[in-house]
Amino acid sequence: MKTRYSYGGDEHIYVEVDEEMSLDAFFISLSMSKAVREANIPGVTEICPANASFEVRFDPDVIAPDAMMARIKELEHKAETAEKRLSTRIVEIPVYFQDPWTHETLMRFRERHQDPSGSDLDYAARINGYDSVAAFIEAFHSQPWFVSMVGFVAGLPFLYQLVEREKQLQVPKYLSPRTDTPKQTVGYGGCFSCIYSVRGAGGYQMFGVTPMPIFDPEQEVSYLKDFMVFFKPGDIVKWKPIDRAEYDRILEEVEQGAYTPRIAEVEFDLDAFNADMTGFNAKLMEALNDA
């Protein structure tokens, strides 16, 4: 990995730890952005973390851009030697795969897709070498995912699969973005999954929908009363396939203020994960099952 630093106009510095996503790059980026925050550099007004990068906004009347760049670069070595460990949580997210709403939407936009003859899941299964959609869905939900970033639109999480690189699912985005995506769609683009927090345009493949709101600006949802955004970087997600009946039941509980997401507090240690991915994931899911 070679960190790249660049200016964004007069008020921003962009720091890219690596050109490709990895958990190592994520942790270095996280440690660097944390170090910038803890340094209390005069003039810094905002720090925005991303998957394997972050951006710093500053006031050039307080600190010159070249001085700001130098201060950030001084912190890189500290980040590289920081402990790659997080106190976090694993969350179960129910998903109604092959639901009628995303299916109706994707069929309206087939001319923008690589394979107009089938569904998004048909395409994803085929290009990843699976004999059936069911086998692809099993691979998608069987192992946990890591939230590496929240953003692009308010509350939208980017999720990175916690498996060996050669086992990671890869699905390109639509050739041309849709003008419509149902709220709470579970999507996929490149090596990332996501949950669309609001209805709107989108280019990720659509696999299903969750009945669990993850963004509520009115803060009326019972578990979002303290903060309107559910996810934060470092969260771990375990998808749970559900059918229409369970989807409707959870939706009703959400509307009544009675739904509580299944969550367990866990420790994520990158070195331990890299040493035994299967065993480490099993312990994460065991913690969730015990919750």
UniProtKB/TrEMBL annotation:
Keywords: ATP-binding, Hydrolase, Nucleotide-binding. It comes from the Bacteria. This is Allophanate hydrolase subunit 1. Gene3D superfamilies: 3.30.1360.40, Cyclophilin-like (2.40.100.10). GO terms for molecular function: ATP binding; hydrolase activity. Residues 3-225 form the Carboxyltransferase domain. It comes from Antarcticimicrobium luteum.
